[in-house]
Write a structure and sequence with these properties.
By secondary structure, the chain is an alpha/beta fold. It has a domain at 2-189 and 225-249 and 290-311: 3-Layer(aba) Sandwich (Rossmann fold). It is 43% helix and 16% strand. The protein contains 12 helices and 12 strands. The strands form 3 sheets. The chain has a 7-stranded parallel beta sheet with strand order 3-2-1-4-5-6-10, sandwiched between helices. Helix 1 crosses helix 8 (226-239), helix 7 runs parallel beside helix 9 and helix 11 packs across helix 12. It is globular and about 65 Å long. It binds nicotinamide-adenine-dinucleotide. Residues 6-7, 9-13, 31-34, 36-37, 57-59, 79-83, 98, 102, 130-132, 161, 184, 186-187, 193 line the site of nicotinamide-adenine-dinucleotide (NAD).
Length: 349
């Protein structure tokens, strides 16, 4: 199948691109190449005859129309988005533009394209929207998010993603446009831009800097390895039921501070410093409105499509630390572009 993947130069999108090509699909990678994009993430597949790249912003309707007309995709996997909570606190309008307006434009262009298709190409077409569990808000000490959990986004980022989910559902309901939605937990793994928790900890430790912990570090997240996620997404694309939502999680919840300590222990072995890396842990002001706990019940995906996460968290963290140690040149390239991992997202009075 020929899949149009938006955001394919980012962290999760590039994992999906690599996996889709490995599975024998053709891929059109549409990406605006914002600060978090990196074409090195897809270097390994760039010369594959089934791969094409389009440097396009999803907010540019004419350019998106040209991409559909040129490549005639069989399906869309929509991952392009502004994705970092701390940046959303500082500049929410970029999130409103790309995540809400951009999704609406993509839906409209895709729908007009789909309406003109015929036969099996029309019947089999689908639009897969990739979203986050953060749309459900925050949990207390127990309970899990499921597909039935009411929406309760609390941050500019999660509100923009919730809006995009509503748009996709509305297009499905109103226009009978063939959509499917997934909401996943926190991803980790290779090629993640060093501003999210896990790569920030690893890269700052490797650079001998302090390791910031927001608040008391007791927040709980469910961690999903990006390769497990890519596998789940391609399964939902091919076998998921139209109009349905699937939650995707790693079945691996942990407090942030525990995750940081595990990473430090791996770094002590792989990149020893004079003292244990854990001594660099520094508690800093919490993120404004920081959600306390996320946890996903992914049993619908397991029951209906037979998918479960395969990578245990400890092994996944060890592999991820190893990847950043071995591929530090990838981080250096980002540093040379001026991204220094300093604190973002504090509300200024
Ligand atoms: P990322 O920031 O690494 O990548 C986003 C990609 O989208 C970048 O390559 C960027 O250039 C591109 N992009 C942004 N705005 C664009 C626009 N207007 N037009 C075209 N391209 C644009 O993000 P990620 O972590 O890979 O996240 C991918 C998707 O998964 C997002 O939709 C995000 O909301 C969702 N998600 C991520 C996580 C996570 O843990 N990272 C968890 C749940 C859901």
């Amino acid at each position: 199948m020929k899949i149009l993947i938006t955001g394919g130069a980012g962290f999760i999108g590039s994992a999906v691109v690599r996996r889709a090509i490995a599975d024998g699909h053709q891929v059109v990678n549409l990406d605006a190449l914002t600060y978090s994009a990196n074409l090195e993430n897809v270097e390994g597949v760039a010369s594959n005859p089934g791969y094409a790249f389009e440097h396009v912003d999803i907010c540019d309707r004419a350019a998106v129309e040209r991409v559909f007309a040129t490549h005639q995709p069989d399906a869309v996997m929509h991952l392009a988005a502004e994705s970092h909570n701390d940046r959303a606190i500082e500049g929410p309008l970029d999130f409103v533009k790309s995540n809400i307006l951009g999704t609406a434009i993509l839906l409209e262009v895709a729908r007009a394209y789909w309406l003109k298709l015929e036969g099996a190409k029309k019947d089999d077409f689908r639009f897969h929207h990739i979203s986050t569990d953060e749309v459900f808000g925050a949990l207390g000490e127990d309970g899990d998010f499921t597909e039935e959990t009411p929406y309760d986004p609390r941050s500019p980022y999660s509100a923009s993603k919730a809006s995009s989910d509503h748009l996709v559902r509305a297009w499905g309901h109103t226009y009978k446009f063939p959509v499917v939605i997934t909401n996943c937990s926190n991803n980790y793994g290779p090629y993640q831009f060093p501003e999210k928790l896990i790569p920030t900890v690893i890269t700052r430790a490797l650079e001998g800097k302090t390791i910031p912990v927001y608040g008391d570090g007791r927040q709980v997240r469910d961690w999903l390895h990006v390769d497990d996620h890519a596998e789940a997404l391609l399964l939902v694309l091919s076998k998921g039921k139209l109009g349905e939502t699937y939650c995707i999680g790693g079945d691996a919840t942990k407090r942030n501070l525990e995750v940081i300590k595990i990473i430090c222990a791996h770094l002590d072995k792989m990149a020893p410093a004079n003292t244990s890396h854990a001594e660099k842990i520094t508690f800093v002001t919490d993120r404004p409105g920081h959600d306390f706990r996320y946890s996903i019940d992914a049993s619908k995906l397991e029951r209906e499509l037979g998918w479960t996460a395969r990578m245990p968290l400890d092994a996944g963290l060890e592999d991820t630390v190893r990847w950043y140690v071995d591929n530090y040149a990838w981080v250096e390239g980002i540093r040379q572009r001026g991204f220094d991992s300093e604190r973002l997202g504090l509300v200024k009075a």
